[in-house]
Amino acid sequence: MDSTSIEEVMNVMREFFPSHASIAIADTKEFIFYQPSNQIDLHIQNGDLVKEGTATHKALSTGKKVTEFIDPSVFGIPYYGMSMPIREDGKIKGAVTAILPEPPSSFLTNYLTIKKGECWYPVKQESVLFLETQFRKTLVKTDSIEGYHRLNLSELELFLSPTLFVRCHRSYIVNIDFIDEIQPDSHSTFLLIMKNGTRIPVSQRYASYFRRSLGF
Question: What is the domain class of 3-106 according to CATH?
Fold first, then answer.
């Protein structure tokens, strides 16, 4: 990741996470950026190897978003980590992690606010069928309304519930509750039939991750 990519990630993180969150960005082996907060500081240095047992290591190892409590045996300080793998062309290139003194649920909202026409509408995450990349924005589709979120799909993925949503394509994230059927589509990919009839592909790059996420 270059300095431009890091700055783009930080712009998103600063807007969504509170000032008491420390932010760490790593490539696949070591930390390349760290911004401590005044409430929690793991004293990470650029170039430090990513330790086993950290939220960052778990996100890199599993390829999934990780949100969990990390006990003090790792850094000497207990913390709540929220880490998201960063992908490029389907391959994991690193991870961005928010380090918090309290559970992330205390500040993350269960709503997404989308724009349709000249108005904005809050929609519950659980009501979202799928999200799709369109025109450098994200189309958010529910049974009753659809509209655009200003963040792109990869940025928005960080703030979606990991128990509800799974990435299946560079252009799609789906709500598992709204998958009606999973059909084979060639030797290694799948086609999702959503409950509203929409057909969504699972790309080859995400097929293994998708299968692991759904346990088949």
Answer: alpha beta
Fold matches, 3-106 and 111-214: no
For residue 122, what are the contacts with CB-CB under 8 A and spacing of at least 6? 111, 112, 113
Edge-to-edge strands, sheet with 128-134: 119-124, 111-116, 146-149, 137-142, 128-134, 172-175, 165-169
CATH match for 111-214 among 1.20.1050.10, 3.40.1380.20, 2.40.50.40, 2.40.128.20: 2.40.50.40
Per-residue pLDDT in tens (0 to 9) along the chain, 216 residues: 666 666 666 666 666 677 788 999 999 999 999 999 988 999 999 999 999 999 999 999 988 888 888 888 889 899 988 898 888 777 898 999 999 887 765 555 688 999 999 999 999 999 999 999 998 889 999 999 999 998 888 778 877 887 899 989 989 999 999 999 999 988 779 999 999 999 999 998 888 888 888 988
Domain range list for the chain: 3-106, 111-214
190 and 204 Cβ atoms separated by less than 8 Å: no
**Residue among 4, 14, 33, 53 nearest 158 (CA):** 14
Helical H runs in the chain?
Answer: 3-16, 55-62, 153-157, 204-214
Count how many residues are written for the chain.
216
Q: Which letter does DSSP use for residue 82 in this model?
A: E
